[in-house]
């Protein structure tokens, strides 16, 4: 019922992609999602190539299913990470914070599928022209780096503007969001925050608990005065960011206070002073369970939802 071009492109059972979240999307989570029939993704973030290679090889020992690597173009190690991905013969890369255009020929020669994250119609059309295989249209409801358009408004516009498959992302955590994404014309969905609360996700329990306790208005966008705004859960750090921005602090000062804060929350569990990247959908997440159960629950309930909708006269 839910077999789309994305399933054929990525050789997966369900068109469900796991977000490539830095520090969060490790081999354990990526392999669990892939084993469950979706596409797991290792988040390279700002990690050196040696760390990324280690995660890739760990994932290869945990799954024989396809999985991907998310490449973050603001990383100082981006070229080395790309070399590693090529050497390790990864089947798919998702990309963010930059244009993968100059690397497309290398990826194509290696048989790697390229799926960039986009936040506008113009960028989607530009990347289709350079030969990417699909697009992740991510609305500002997402956690982490955000654009200016919402998922509901942006996805159908991008679907109408390109011929390649589109994956919806941002504000999706359950079967209702999955069906909505398909209704907008997307051929798959990407989830990040929901998979943070997967059992296999290695983030500190305090991070997961913060998401579970979140309500509908628990997130805020920090770094609005920079070119890279970020959505996080409200805490002491986000308040400090807000105060600094209101006082006219420069980008260097803001970057200084933010350095190392994601690791502080993910690894050390300091959810007061660390950055808790999470989407607006956090208020909908109430439990921690295996990735396979998350995916199975979405597929079963989506089928039931569609059956109920077909009975409407």
Reconstruct the topology from this structure.
Elements: H1 5-10, E1 16-18, H2 27-35, E2 40-43, H3 49-62, E3 67-72, H4 78-87, E4 92-96, H5 104-109, E5 113-118, H6 121-129, E6 135-138, E7 144-145, H7 151-161, E8 166-169, H8 175-183, E9 189-191, H9 193-196, H10 205-213, E10 219-222, E11 230-233, H11 236-246, H12 251-258, H13 261-266, H14 291-310
Please supply descriptive tags for the structure shown above.
313 residues; alpha/beta; 8-stranded parallel β-sheet; 3-stranded antiparallel β-sheet; 14 helices; globular
Helix/strand structural class: alpha/beta
**Total strands:** 11
* Through-space gap between termini: 22 Å
Query: Order of strands side by side in the largest beta sheet?
Result: 1-9-8-6-5-4-3-2
In DSSP terms (H or I, runs of 4 or more residues), the helix count works out at 14
Q: Kindly estimate the percentage of residues that lie in beta strands according to DSSP.
A: 5-15%
Note poorly predicted spans: none
- Name the helix and strand elements from N-terminus to C-terminus, one letter apiece: HEHEHEHEHEHEEHEHEHHEEHHHH
Q: How is the main sheet built?
A: 8 strands, parallel
Helix content: 40-55%
Rg calculated over all Cα atoms = 18 Å
Q: Estimate the global geometry from the Cα principal axes.
A: globular
Q: Mean of the pLDDT scores?
A: 93
């Amino acid at each position: 019922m839910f077999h789309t071009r994305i399933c054929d492109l990525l050789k997966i059972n369900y068109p469900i992609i796991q977000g490539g979240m830095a520090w969060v999307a490790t081999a354990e989570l990526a392999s669990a999602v892939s084993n469950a029939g979706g596409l797991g993704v290792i988040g390279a973030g700002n990690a050196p190539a040696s760390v990324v290679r280690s995660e890739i090889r760990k994932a290869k020992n945990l799954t024989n299913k396809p999985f991907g690597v998310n490449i973050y173009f603001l990383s100082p190690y981006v070229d080395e990470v790309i070399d590693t991905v090529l050497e390790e013969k990864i089947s798919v890369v998702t990309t963010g914070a930059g244009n993968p255009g100059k690397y497309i020929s290398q990826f194509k020669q290696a048989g790697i599928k390229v799926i960039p994250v986009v936040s506008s119609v113009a960028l989607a059309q530009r990347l289709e022209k350079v030969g990417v295989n699909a697009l992740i249209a991510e609305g500002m409801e997402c956690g982490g780096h955000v654009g200016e358009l919402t998922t509901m408004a942006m996805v159908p516009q991008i679907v109408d503007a390109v011929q390649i498959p589109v994956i919806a992302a941002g504000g999706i955590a359950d079967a209702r969001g999955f069906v909505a994404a398909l209704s907008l014309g997307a051929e798959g969905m990407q989830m990040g925050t929901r998979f943070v609360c997967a059992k296999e996700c290695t983030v500190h329990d305090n991070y997961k608990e913060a998401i579970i306790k979140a309500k509908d208005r628990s997130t805020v966008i920090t770094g609005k005065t920079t070119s890279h705004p970020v959505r996080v859960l409200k805490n002491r750090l986000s308040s400090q960011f807000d105060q600094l921005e209101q006082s006219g602090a420069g980008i260097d000062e803001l970057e200084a206070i933010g350095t190392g804060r994601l690791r502080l929350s993910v690894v050390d569990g300091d959810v007061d002073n660390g950055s808790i990247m999470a989407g607006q959908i956090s208020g909908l997440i109430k439990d921690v369970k295996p990735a396979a159960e998350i995916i199975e629950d979405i597929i079963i309930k989506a089928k039931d939802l569609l059956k109920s909708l077909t009975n409407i006269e």
